[in-house]
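User: Okay, second chain of the day. Same drill as before: sequence in, structure tokens out.
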Amino acid sequence: MTARKRSAVMQFLMASAVSVAASTGCATENNGASGGDASTSAAAASAPAEQVDKDAAKALREELSRVGAEEFTAADYKPGRVQHIVLFKFKPDTSSEEQTETMKRFRSLRTQATRDGKPYIMSLDSGVQTSGEGAGS
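Assistant: Same drill. Structure tokens below.
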């Protein structure tokens, strides 16, 4: 395995470890993550965030070792759906035309972003933020 691929795999492992810790309810005051069933993750939630991250990273390294880098990084290995949230805050001097064009280009990713010649974004929702607290102002 090349050093570049090994580095990419390690970056993926570390990012995944943080994601796994957050999505499994292994939250602490230190990392601010939330989620999972509070009744089943109370013990995990009391673990230090660093240990949770280390445990998740260790599990991912073991899986990488078991299946190999080629399979582990393949697009069809454990496919799933990722919800990605992108927020824009335009500078006050950004014209409405520039804002409209930016949003138009962003929405076009739905059909223009491709992998192996096929679009991979399943859905894309957009709109103006509305907040009862006035957070969108």
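Residues 18 and 87 are 21 Å apart (CA to CA).

User: Thanks, on to the next one.
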